[in-house]
Amino acid sequence: MMNYFVAKESIVRQIWGNGDTILFIFAGASAEFALNKAVDWLYFTGRLPADPLKRLFSTVSYARQIVFSNHDDALHAIDKINMIHKGVEDQRGQHIPDWAYRDVLYMLIDYSIRSFELLERKLSTTEKEEVFDVFYRMGSRMAIKDLPTTFEEWQLMRAIALEENLIKGDFTIDLYKQYRKHLGQIRYMVLKQSQILLLPAKVNQLLALGQNPLAGTMLNLYKLSRFIGLKPMLKNAILPAAYKQEIMALDNYKTDAT
Question: Which residues of the chain have pLDDT under 50?
Fold first, then answer.
Protein backbone atom coordinates (compact mmCIF):
# COMPACT_ATOMS: atom_id res chain seq x y z
CA MET A 1 0.00 0.00 0.00
CA MET A 2 1.37 3.40 -1.04
CA ASN A 3 2.43 5.68 1.81
CA TYR A 4 1.63 9.35 1.15
CA PHE A 5 2.99 12.48 2.80
CA VAL A 6 -0.55 13.90 2.65
CA ALA A 7 -3.49 11.48 2.84
CA LYS A 8 -5.63 11.24 -0.29
CA GLU A 9 -8.75 12.36 1.58
CA SER A 10 -7.01 15.32 3.25
CA ILE A 11 -8.44 18.81 2.88
CA VAL A 12 -4.91 19.93 1.99
CA ARG A 13 -5.18 18.09 -1.32
CA GLN A 14 -8.45 19.87 -2.06
CA ILE A 15 -6.84 23.24 -1.34
CA TRP A 16 -3.64 22.69 -3.33
CA GLY A 17 -5.39 20.84 -6.15
CA ASN A 18 -7.53 23.87 -7.00
CA GLY A 19 -6.12 26.62 -9.21
CA ASP A 20 -8.42 29.24 -7.70
CA THR A 21 -7.18 28.74 -4.16
CA ILE A 22 -3.56 28.66 -5.35
CA LEU A 23 -3.94 32.04 -7.03
CA PHE A 24 -5.31 33.50 -3.82
CA ILE A 25 -2.53 31.91 -1.77
CA PHE A 26 -0.11 33.65 -4.13
CA ALA A 27 -1.96 36.94 -3.72
CA GLY A 28 -1.64 36.78 0.06
CA ALA A 29 1.97 35.60 0.10
CA SER A 30 3.02 38.23 -2.47
CA ALA A 31 1.75 40.95 -0.14
CA GLU A 32 3.36 39.58 2.99
CA PHE A 33 6.68 38.75 1.32
CA ALA A 34 6.92 42.41 0.35
CA LEU A 35 6.65 43.42 4.01
CA ASN A 36 8.76 40.74 5.63
CA LYS A 37 11.93 42.03 7.26
CA ALA A 38 13.87 39.20 5.57
CA VAL A 39 12.72 40.09 2.04
CA ASP A 40 16.31 41.15 1.28
CA TRP A 41 17.07 37.43 0.89
CA LEU A 42 14.69 37.28 -2.06
CA TYR A 43 16.41 40.31 -3.54
CA PHE A 44 19.82 38.72 -3.05
CA THR A 45 18.99 36.00 -5.59
CA GLY A 46 17.12 38.50 -7.79
CA ARG A 47 14.58 35.87 -8.82
CA LEU A 48 11.49 37.35 -7.21
CA PRO A 49 11.80 40.96 -8.41
CA ALA A 50 13.04 39.82 -11.83
CA ASP A 51 9.99 37.66 -12.52
CA PRO A 52 7.39 37.35 -9.72
CA LEU A 53 5.10 35.09 -11.78
CA LYS A 54 7.86 32.64 -12.61
CA ARG A 55 8.66 32.48 -8.90
CA LEU A 56 4.96 31.77 -8.23
CA PHE A 57 4.83 28.76 -10.52
CA SER A 58 8.15 27.47 -9.20
CA THR A 59 6.80 27.65 -5.64
CA VAL A 60 3.54 25.96 -6.69
CA SER A 61 5.52 23.15 -8.30
CA TYR A 62 7.45 22.38 -5.12
CA ALA A 63 4.38 22.66 -2.89
CA ARG A 64 2.42 20.28 -5.08
CA GLN A 65 5.25 17.77 -5.16
CA ILE A 66 5.07 17.70 -1.38
CA VAL A 67 1.27 17.57 -1.14
CA PHE A 68 0.59 15.00 -3.87
CA SER A 69 3.65 12.75 -3.95
CA ASN A 70 4.33 9.58 -2.03
CA HIS A 71 6.12 9.99 1.28
CA ASP A 72 9.68 9.42 0.04
CA ASP A 73 9.31 11.69 -2.98
CA ALA A 74 7.83 14.42 -0.80
CA LEU A 75 10.80 14.22 1.56
CA HIS A 76 13.12 14.43 -1.44
CA ALA A 77 11.35 17.61 -2.59
CA ILE A 78 11.69 19.13 0.89
CA ASP A 79 15.38 18.22 1.02
CA LYS A 80 15.86 19.86 -2.39
CA ILE A 81 14.31 23.08 -1.04
CA ASN A 82 16.80 22.92 1.84
CA MET A 83 19.69 22.46 -0.59
CA ILE A 84 18.60 25.49 -2.61
CA HIS A 85 18.42 27.65 0.51
CA LYS A 86 21.79 26.33 1.70
CA GLY A 87 23.31 27.33 -1.64
CA VAL A 88 21.97 30.87 -1.28
CA GLU A 89 23.32 31.07 2.28
CA ASP A 90 26.75 29.93 1.09
CA GLN A 91 26.76 32.56 -1.66
CA ARG A 92 25.88 35.32 0.79
CA GLY A 93 28.00 34.03 3.66
CA GLN A 94 25.08 34.32 6.10
CA HIS A 95 22.30 32.13 7.46
CA ILE A 96 18.67 32.81 6.70
CA PRO A 97 17.09 33.53 10.13
CA ASP A 98 14.99 30.73 11.62
CA TRP A 99 12.14 33.18 12.16
CA ALA A 100 12.13 33.89 8.42
CA TYR A 101 11.72 30.19 7.66
CA ARG A 102 8.94 29.99 10.23
CA ASP A 103 7.20 33.00 8.73
CA VAL A 104 7.04 31.32 5.31
CA LEU A 105 5.46 28.23 6.84
CA TYR A 106 3.03 30.45 8.74
CA MET A 107 2.05 32.12 5.46
CA LEU A 108 1.43 28.80 3.74
CA ILE A 109 -0.79 27.65 6.61
CA ASP A 110 -2.67 30.92 6.95
CA TYR A 111 -3.29 31.63 3.28
CA SER A 112 -4.22 28.03 2.55
CA ILE A 113 -6.98 28.37 5.12
CA ARG A 114 -8.01 31.92 4.22
CA SER A 115 -8.12 31.23 0.47
CA PHE A 116 -10.24 28.11 0.76
CA GLU A 117 -12.64 29.77 3.18
CA LEU A 118 -12.94 32.83 0.95
CA LEU A 119 -13.75 30.79 -2.15
CA GLU A 120 -15.48 27.69 -0.81
CA ARG A 121 -16.61 27.33 2.82
CA LYS A 122 -15.51 27.58 6.42
CA LEU A 123 -13.09 24.88 7.52
CA SER A 124 -13.63 22.85 10.65
CA THR A 125 -11.07 22.94 13.44
CA THR A 126 -9.99 19.43 12.46
CA GLU A 127 -9.43 20.51 8.85
CA LYS A 128 -7.40 23.51 9.95
CA GLU A 129 -5.30 21.21 12.11
CA GLU A 130 -4.70 19.04 9.03
CA VAL A 131 -3.35 22.06 7.15
CA PHE A 132 -1.12 22.93 10.09
CA ASP A 133 0.14 19.36 10.42
CA VAL A 134 1.29 19.11 6.79
CA PHE A 135 3.39 22.26 6.99
CA TYR A 136 4.59 21.45 10.50
CA ARG A 137 5.98 18.16 9.17
CA MET A 138 7.54 20.02 6.26
CA GLY A 139 9.20 22.47 8.67
CA SER A 140 10.40 19.64 10.90
CA ARG A 141 12.02 17.92 7.93
CA MET A 142 13.76 21.20 7.12
CA ALA A 143 15.06 21.28 10.72
CA ILE A 144 13.51 24.70 11.37
CA LYS A 145 13.91 25.56 15.04
CA ASP A 146 11.21 26.46 17.57
CA LEU A 147 8.20 25.50 15.48
CA PRO A 148 4.77 25.55 17.12
CA THR A 149 3.61 22.00 17.72
CA THR A 150 -0.16 22.55 17.75
CA PHE A 151 -2.59 24.62 15.71
CA GLU A 152 -3.47 26.65 18.78
CA GLU A 153 0.19 27.44 19.44
CA TRP A 154 0.61 28.38 15.78
CA GLN A 155 -2.24 30.88 16.06
CA LEU A 156 -0.45 32.65 18.90
CA MET A 157 2.94 32.61 17.20
CA ARG A 158 1.43 33.76 13.92
CA ALA A 159 -0.11 36.80 15.64
CA ILE A 160 3.24 37.67 17.26
CA ALA A 161 5.11 37.28 13.96
CA LEU A 162 2.69 39.63 12.20
CA GLU A 163 3.42 42.29 14.80
CA GLU A 164 7.20 41.81 14.98
CA ASN A 165 8.47 40.73 11.55
CA LEU A 166 6.75 43.04 9.08
CA ILE A 167 7.75 46.52 7.96
CA LYS A 168 6.97 48.69 4.96
CA GLY A 169 10.27 49.77 3.42
CA ASP A 170 12.07 50.34 0.15
CA PHE A 171 11.87 46.66 -0.78
CA THR A 172 8.10 46.74 -0.27
CA ILE A 173 7.70 49.68 -2.61
CA ASP A 174 10.02 48.21 -5.24
CA LEU A 175 8.40 44.77 -5.15
CA TYR A 176 4.95 46.24 -5.72
CA LYS A 177 6.39 48.18 -8.67
CA GLN A 178 7.59 44.85 -10.07
CA TYR A 179 4.14 43.32 -9.57
CA ARG A 180 2.60 46.19 -11.52
CA LYS A 181 5.26 45.97 -14.25
CA HIS A 182 4.84 42.23 -14.82
CA LEU A 183 1.06 42.08 -14.39
CA GLY A 184 0.00 45.28 -16.14
CA GLN A 185 -2.31 47.88 -14.65
CA ILE A 186 -5.61 45.94 -14.83
CA ARG A 187 -4.22 42.67 -13.49
CA TYR A 188 -2.35 44.60 -10.81
CA MET A 189 -5.65 46.15 -9.74
CA VAL A 190 -7.21 42.67 -9.55
CA LEU A 191 -4.30 41.50 -7.38
CA LYS A 192 -4.78 44.34 -4.92
CA GLN A 193 -8.54 43.81 -4.71
CA SER A 194 -8.03 40.13 -3.92
CA GLN A 195 -5.50 41.10 -1.24
CA ILE A 196 -8.06 43.40 0.37
CA LEU A 197 -10.37 40.40 0.83
CA LEU A 198 -7.68 38.02 2.01
CA LEU A 199 -5.03 39.69 4.13
CA PRO A 200 -4.85 39.83 7.93
CA ALA A 201 -5.67 43.28 9.29
CA LYS A 202 -2.02 44.04 10.17
CA VAL A 203 -0.81 43.34 6.63
CA ASN A 204 -3.61 45.38 5.09
CA GLN A 205 -2.82 48.25 7.45
CA LEU A 206 0.89 48.34 6.57
CA LEU A 207 0.12 48.29 2.85
CA ALA A 208 -2.65 50.88 3.29
CA LEU A 209 -5.00 48.87 1.07
CA GLY A 210 -8.09 49.73 3.09
CA GLN A 211 -11.49 48.39 2.06
CA ASN A 212 -13.25 48.58 -1.31
CA PRO A 213 -16.76 47.31 -2.20
CA LEU A 214 -15.38 46.49 -5.65
CA ALA A 215 -13.34 43.67 -4.13
CA GLY A 216 -16.42 41.78 -2.95
CA THR A 217 -18.19 42.36 -6.25
CA MET A 218 -15.24 40.98 -8.20
CA LEU A 219 -15.11 37.90 -5.97
CA ASN A 220 -18.81 37.20 -6.48
CA LEU A 221 -18.42 37.53 -10.25
CA TYR A 222 -15.48 35.15 -10.20
CA LYS A 223 -17.43 32.60 -8.19
CA LEU A 224 -20.35 32.95 -10.61
CA SER A 225 -18.04 32.32 -13.54
CA ARG A 226 -17.38 28.81 -12.25
CA PHE A 227 -21.04 27.92 -12.65
CA ILE A 228 -21.57 29.38 -16.11
CA GLY A 229 -18.38 28.09 -17.71
CA LEU A 230 -16.39 31.32 -17.90
CA LYS A 231 -13.70 30.50 -15.34
CA PRO A 232 -10.96 29.49 -17.83
CA MET A 233 -11.48 32.72 -19.75
CA LEU A 234 -11.36 34.83 -16.60
CA LYS A 235 -8.29 33.03 -15.29
CA ASN A 236 -6.50 33.66 -18.57
CA ALA A 237 -7.47 37.31 -18.26
CA ILE A 238 -6.09 37.58 -14.72
CA LEU A 239 -2.59 36.34 -15.60
CA PRO A 240 -0.51 37.20 -18.69
CA ALA A 241 -0.71 35.10 -21.87
CA ALA A 242 2.97 34.11 -21.54
CA TYR A 243 1.93 31.86 -18.65
CA LYS A 244 -1.15 30.33 -20.31
CA GLN A 245 0.15 26.75 -20.07
CA GLU A 246 1.00 27.10 -16.38
CA ILE A 247 -2.33 28.81 -15.67
CA MET A 248 -4.39 26.03 -17.21
CA ALA A 249 -2.26 23.42 -15.43
CA LEU A 250 -3.31 24.83 -12.05
CA ASP A 251 -6.64 22.99 -12.38
CA ASN A 252 -5.23 19.88 -14.01
CA TYR A 253 -2.48 18.71 -11.69
CA LYS A 254 -1.86 14.97 -11.76
CA THR A 255 0.83 12.74 -10.27
CA ASP A 256 1.32 9.00 -10.08
CA ALA A 257 0.47 9.26 -6.40
CA THR A 258 -3.01 10.73 -6.85
Answer: 255-258
